[in-house]
């Protein structure tokens, strides 16, 4: 089953797919964010799932991230956000072949502020390190796989796999909440003591 917004030419486009039996309720859907509340995994503990495609234009991106907090305010505290934010939080999340070095972070103040308030953790991944290739200019970007502390506590064995596509310059992102199967890396394990360090709201390695 899936919900999707078609691309405009060769850009944009957003799709979320899930296996049969997953019980979820749409919260908000647009060409830039698809947000659902999941009820079936685990039973009785709803959590928020959001797939994001940040607007490419800087002015629209700022307005979008200013609106996101109110869009997700009524969702459970256990939140997961996956997708292409069209902005990076850290220098290591981009790379330029022109300058042959890591790029620079490019998030808007609103995006940075929301992630800081949310206290997100990076889930880690298996597969290609960079999941979006801006072919013109040779610039590579990583995509977001961010979750709140509450979500990580619900799914300590969660795994994320980046899947390459021969016909697209974006990788698909596969989320496995129960951690079954070998995706080629050690499962994420949340440790409560990490929250004692204020830096844990940004990076946990």
Automatic annotation (TrEMBL):
Gene Ontology MF terms in the entry: endonuclease activity; exonuclease activity
SUPFAM superfamilies on file: DNase I-like
Protein name (database record): Endonuclease/exonuclease/phosphatase
Transmembrane segments: none
Record-linked PANTHER family: BNAC02G09200D PROTEIN (PTHR33710), ENDONUCLEASE_EXONUCLEASE_PHOSPHATASE DOMAIN-CONTAINING PROTEIN (PTHR33710:SF71)
Keyword vocabulary terms for this entry: Endonuclease, Exonuclease, Hydrolase, Nuclease
Organism: Trema orientale
